[in-house]
Amino acid sequence: MRIGIFGTGGMADALGTQWARHDLMVSGRSDPGPLAGRLGAATGTWRETAAFADVLLLAVPAAAIGEVLAEAGPLAGKVLVDCTNDPSLTGTPVASRIITEAHVVKAFNLAHVDVWRMTPPVFGGRPLSVPLCGDDPAALDAVSTLVRDIGAHPVHAGGLDRAALLEATAAFVIGLWFAGEDAQAILTPLG
């Protein structure tokens, strides 16, 4: 799979490291060279990375999404994985602010960056479940493959209209973690 990574921060590094067996290209607002070097990836402009990739990881601050997508150019037929969260928690949810012809899938936004560095992310003998929200079956299949590549379990959680629920869940759970609470304990298994 050809994966383009929009961003050079923690999420781009963690997920890019997990996907290094794929063909990767990195672009960023800061120099993508160091991250690309660690990943064995190529570097490119936003537009070059978009043209190269079948799947694009959107791992930039929420405030930069519009600018990055405008510079990336046409994305028709591409899969765009949105792992972003907006720390300001105001205004319209991130997923609904993404204006593109790409097939957007909201994923990888519920866990801390260090969880994505785990190989594999397993807790109490159970692989991490990763909710996916998207409308295109082929895009969901591609992202499900990437979830399985890191040893996690993809969970189809509905259409892109439900992505705001994932973002709200992230805000709620991350707030609990920072308060020192065991957020995992609130989501107990049925049996």
Automatic annotation (TrEMBL):
Coiled coil ranges: none
Domain named Pyrroline-5-carboxylate reductase catalytic N-terminal: residues: 2-85
InterPro entries: NAD(P)-bd_dom_sf, P5C_Rdtase_cat_N, STEAP_metalloreductase
Keywords, sorted A to Z: Oxidoreductase
Pfam families in the record: F420_oxidored
Protein name: NADP oxidoreductase
Lineage of origin: Bacteria, Bacillati, Actinomycetota, Actinomycetes, Pseudonocardiales
